[in-house]
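Notes to self after the call with IL:
- keep both proteins in one doc
- input above output, always
- annotate only the second one for now

Protein 1:
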Amino acid sequence: MREIASLSSEISIWDTLSSDIDNLSEFMDLCVQDGEDFTEDLMVDFLKIQNRVEELEFELVFAGTYDQSNAIINISAGAGGSDSQDWAQMLMRMYLRWAENRRFSTKILDLSSGEEIGVKSTTIEISGRNAYGWLKFEQGVHRLVRISPFDADHQRHTSFALAEILPELSGSHDVEIRDDELKIDTYRASGNGGQNVQKVESAVRITHLPSGLVVTCQNERSQIQNRESAMKVLRARLINIQIQKQAQEIADIKGSHISPEWGNQIRSYILHPYKLVKDHRTGYESHDPQDILDGNLDSLLHKSLLNNLGN
């Protein structure tokens, strides 16, 4: 049903564009017949259609196997205590704002708060057209340089956070997970979750024994809902491992390979002594980091997607 809805939406978009073009053509014919000069109005409508065509043309980059899927984002704070945990929360806000700007729906599946401020880790689901395709190259280490608000001496600090981008899968056909491969533990939730928080063991921790992957979910109201969400994340992580293996095989064939480890930062956000956001893979730069942190990522994401065409 989800695939049918997606295809129906795709058809509707092109039908609307075709109708807009026909209407513009008819309007032009009427202007010629009546000798009226509506050049300005015609140009406004023409530019709207041109921009829409360019947007749809750009969407041809979403040709990957999972590009049309919803996205699951895992954000983990690096070493550095409050600074890194605050930075992880800033990244979470950035992606939530971006999704809001695109009118995508969001859901926080799991959140582990920091001791004093920020978050140690969080898992977010972003649902919308080509959500995973838009975000898949955001995976990696994000570096923040700023005057620490937690340092009484006002020293400059460098903080790191890791973003993991996963495709959400609607079914289990893409990866097989047997019941005997799972260890499932329950515990009392520590965050939002309704009246059952701290009263019943609604939070779920699932360990996938063959891979050693551990996923948790505690933000739903019931244990069943948390288990379903945790399985969704586990399935996505297993698929992501397959994607990374395929990428490594391709890179080995090409003769080069960059290990996706913690130290390989993909982007720096510098707030002091100057203001700059720089993507180290594409060379993209912005001198307005606050705009980026407020979720205005489209120009940056465009650059990443075009830079990775064919990969």
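Protein 2 (the one to annotate):
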Amino acid sequence: MLEAIAKLLVLQDRDRKLRHAEAELANIEPERQTFKTKSLTIQAQLDQVRLRVKQIESDRKQLELEVEAKKQMIERYANQQLQTRKNEEYRALAHEIETCKTAITSIEDGEIELMEHSEQAQKEVARLTKAAESAKKLSDEQTAQLGAREQNLQKELAQLQSNREELAAAVDPGVRARYERLTKSRGENVLVGVQHGVCGGCHMKLPPQTLVAAQSDQDLVTCNSCGRILYFTRDMVLAGDD
């Protein structure tokens, strides 16, 4: 194999591993935030339901006060009835008493409805409490695992970067410049093998003269279609060999 190709393959492998490690490292924080967000969302739902329970209890107590106030009014009207001698005034007080009793019935119906709502809300609190605990536990576990993974990736990345420049410096400057340009346009697969007469990058059929040049291993050969650098080894198959 041409020495320049061999060195480029080593550099390409190092760059590929670097990109993969960097990509995986970049995904750590979004993953961490996903677990935290889910936990915080459930906790927020739980807090909201707890507030609703408190509001229902406050509303129920307010209705109790209203009932007590209506009962006191009934007692006052009843006492006034005992003191009056006028039939018209007596009937007016009786009407007020009935109005208060009707209001009490309506308020008590509202209390029953609030009790039903409170029972439903309490069940929701119990459900969300379990869900929040599970989500918090999962978030903590995943955050710890991601933290450990992050540290390992940072170490791996540092090791990969440690002698990358040394590997790049070993490549002829002109060849390296071509490699760098292709990396920007073609991604991580710049050097590709020849298999069954096609380019290993774009999979287009290669002209016979290109195949011969790649097999001769005398100079850098590029694909006529995509411009990637081609190489050929004995375990590969040229067109017509199979």
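Annotation: Helices lie at 3-83, 87-162, 164-169, 173-186, 208-216. The chain has five helices and four strands.
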